[in-house]
What does this fold into?
Amino acid sequence: MESTELLIVGCGPAGGTAAREAARRGIETVVLERDPVVGAKRVCAAGLRPGFCEEFDLPREIVHLDPPTITLTTVKRTYAFQLGPSHTTTREELDGTIGALATREGAEIRTSALFRSLRRDRDGIVVEYADTVAGTRRTIRARSVFLAQGSSARLDEVDPRFRYPAWSAGLITCLQYRVYPERPADPRAYGRLELHYYVSPRSGRNVIAWMFPKRDHLAIGLGIQAKVPGAELRAELDAFNLTVERRLFAGIPFTIRNEGNLLYGGLPRPTIGGDGVMVGGTAAGLVDATTGEGIHEAAISGRIAAEAVAAERGGDAAPAYERGVKQAFYGRLRHRHKLMTLLERKPVRFDVLFRQLEESPRFFELLQRDRNAFTPLEWLYLYGQAAKFSLSALRV
Ligand SMILES: Cc1cc2nc3c(=O)[nH]c(=O)nc-3n(C[C@H](O)[C@H](O)[C@H](O)COP(=O)(O)OP(=O)(O)OC[C@H]3O[C@@H](n4cnc5c(N)ncnc54)[C@H](O)[C@@H]3O)c2cc1C
It folds into this structure.
């Protein structure tokens, strides 16, 4: 049977980064990607945190814009924060570039390769996949496996040790329009990332919506944490899109490309490593529940997987991987999930929180100094903010 040292499932930011960084360390790496072209079908607003390209050594050409501001809008008003410059891109460019760089480092990316199952034997982990072009089933044995197939991962079926009954309740149904105006939109559109938090007047459900500007289009979309029928989601997005149109591209003819996908907004999976198998990115639940962002977490989990495989060569990389990811993210992601649950229960709380953030330059100082990882002291401060906020919210 064919074999490799590291087998990766999925070539999104998690799988692609793991492949690139493992191959760079001389680890024999094969990636299975179900799509025929890496990144071509990903639906995402593709907003990247400040410093992302430098952190992952990615070329500036993939960046469309660097909006310096993020606006958070509630039903009452808009709060503007200078966090930037963030980047916007598209997933064709982001995933495609990471994939190409991984190939250059020596990883082998097999496209139209649909992962089916895995089992362990004496010599390693045997992965079965379908070659969807040839219409055949194939197997490959690996010492380590990194599962990074995103929100559609059915891990309960793949490996019982990753079972997580709360997973499906955390899934968010998303719909996004790529809006191509025939002329540039209002200049205000290009200087900020917009996030909107509101309760749908149609369904009473909590909605998180966004407008992220790109070179040639605006990514306008929304997500609802529930299984929502397509027609309801479309009506919701049409209504939101109209509000953006009135503000930012009124009177300019435009065309729309539709995109739908699942996002995950629950807690991270309790178990993400065991007997040579590691789970990363969104498949592990590494998404910030307050914003829906997960690209940075995905890429970092890929990096930690590559480091763990390199450090444990010949042994089981999964325990070191699980420890590394939990240390890097779990505190923050659990905190964000708790915060979002608290906010959505009573939407007036969004205003209470955003007002506090606006009035607290210290919070933004912390974000500026260390945007991606908080020290325990900083966490104490953030928890303090959250506690203060929840107390004042109770008085509203
Ligand atoms: C509408 C929307 C907007 C978003 N906007 C942002 C944003 O602006 N910023 C941000 O940081 N995050 C955003 N996110 C979240 C972000 O998309 C994810 O966190 C990120 O894509 C996770 O990367 P990943 O590598 O874990 O998984 P994915 O990017 O989902 O990649 C998984 C890969 O696995 C492949 N795959 C799946 N199943 C199989 C299989 N059986 N066999 C082989 N291959 C398989 C897929 O084709 C895909 O290429 C958004 C998500 C959505 C849905």
Remarks:
- Residues 370-376 have pLDDT under 50 and may be disordered.
